[in-house]
Amino acid sequence: MTAPIVIVGAGLAGLRTAEELRRAGYTGELVLIGDESRLPYDRPPLSKQFVRGETDDTTLRPAEFFDEKQIDLRLSTTATALDTAARRVTLADGDTLGYDHLVIATGLRPRRLPGLPELQGVHVLRGHADAVALRDELRGAARALVVGAGFIGCELAASFRASGVEVALIEPQPTPLASVLGEQVGALVARMHRAEGVDLRCGTGLDTFLADEAGRVRGAVLSDGSEVRADLAVIGVGSRPVTEWLTDSGIALAEPAAGGGVLADEVGRTSADGVWAVGDVAAWRHETGARKRVEHWTNAGEQAKLLACALLGAEPPTAARVPYFWSDQYDVKIQALGTPGAADEVTVVADDGRKFLAYYAKDGVLTGVVGAGMTAQVMKARAKIAAAAPVADLLAST
Ligand SMILES: Cc1cc2nc3c(=O)[nH]c(=O)nc-3n(C[C@H](O)[C@H](O)[C@H](O)COP(=O)(O)OP(=O)(O)OC[C@H]3O[C@@H](n4cnc5c(N)ncnc54)[C@H](O)[C@@H]3O)c2cc1C
Pocket of ligand 1, candidates 7, 8, 12: which has the most ligand atoms within 8 Å of its Cβ, to mutate? Predict the structure, then answer.
């Protein structure tokens, strides 16, 4: 009998990899290890419907699914080390587990800002437990401070406003989402938050938190010397790949300055024989040759499919991959297709004060499109992005 395929990390990417392995015909033993106690669940609703109290359950598959598919799901189980020569993974209770192939799907952990006091009422958001703590405190809150206007910070600011809470949103960059979508589109997102009553302060960082006598946050001092009052704060300043358990494994990791993560080729093979990486933790090689991590939902499923095919020697999907992600803020769905980047040339082709559409290009070649409340127009650009068409083609037909 051969050893199992072991997947470490029972989040979206780990679950999808198990599903795709079964779909591609793998009938051998399949073990899915997760350090959380819950069945694999979806994270996008956590900053949206879940925190607003509109949904309670974001489970991806019921318990019976794992029996049906013969996936040996081991929850509350943490992998602590990997021996690639012996093909064994060590678990927190000291047990070891042999593998034929091992898939690293351990995701991310939120970054924290150093030098801040540990206070009640200060939150981060990555997992279900974080979201429960945040939702519970939101019920009694009047004023919230959100530190960082990336996707999670912007979504939380929108959810807090929808819950009737005053929001201060601070961001050191000149606009929200500036490092991902550039300042031009960031300014359109800023306008929407201001119109919704958010006290958005760009070019401003957090100096320190202020506490009451019980050790609970009551506000913050900002880098410009001003003070804001808040009875709840969230730090949304990005995340780090969970790779510390691989420190002695010899697996090649990306430099932290380059975003960290497990280095992998264009189908997820790492530097060690039989070890693969998938999802937010994985820095896959892209068409440009660059290896970078992608922290979006759709990517996890697409990578899982490619990885499963490669691992089993099956035919990979042939359709061109056009990356996609979305973010829901207020009543607006912001969607991105392709690889729009902050350094690209941006042309805003529609803007009605709330909804907008922008094309992104490099050297005149369309790289992506970003729209707010413009689903049909965004999706229309898919074929042109896949064909690396001149942006002028789209501009002419707009
Ligand atoms: C609040 C929030 C909102 C989001 N909204 C959107 C959105 O609107 N649109 C979008 O495109 N994307 C969104 N995303 C991103 C999307 O959810 C992620 O891309 C996706 O969850 C990545 O899945 P993953 O399996 O790689 O990582 P994760 O979902 O983080 O799963 C990794 C799992 O591995 C476990 N683990 C870690 N270390 C170990 C270990 N040593 N042993 C065992 N288990 C371990 C972790 O506890 C976790 O359960 C959002 C993410 C968050 C957090």
Answer: 12
Full 3-state SS string of 245-303:
HHCCCCCCECCHHHCCCEECCCCCECCCCCEEECHHHEEEECCCCCEEECCCHHHHHHH
Fill in the DSSP letter of residue 330.
T
Nearest CA to ligand 1 atom 5: 44
The alpha carbon of 241 and the centre of ligand 1 are apart by a number of angstroms equal to 10
The alpha carbon of 222 and the centre of ligand 1 are apart by a number of angstroms equal to: 30
Chunked mean pLDDT (size 10), the chain, 398 residues: 92 98 97 98 98 96 98 98 98 96 98 94 98 96 98 98 98 97 98 98 97 97 97 97 97 95 97 98 91 96 97 86 96 97 96 96 97 96 94 85
Going from the Cα of 41 to the center of ligand 1, the distance in angstroms, rounded, reads 9
Q: Look up the pTM and report it.
A: 0.97
CA distance 397 to 391: 10
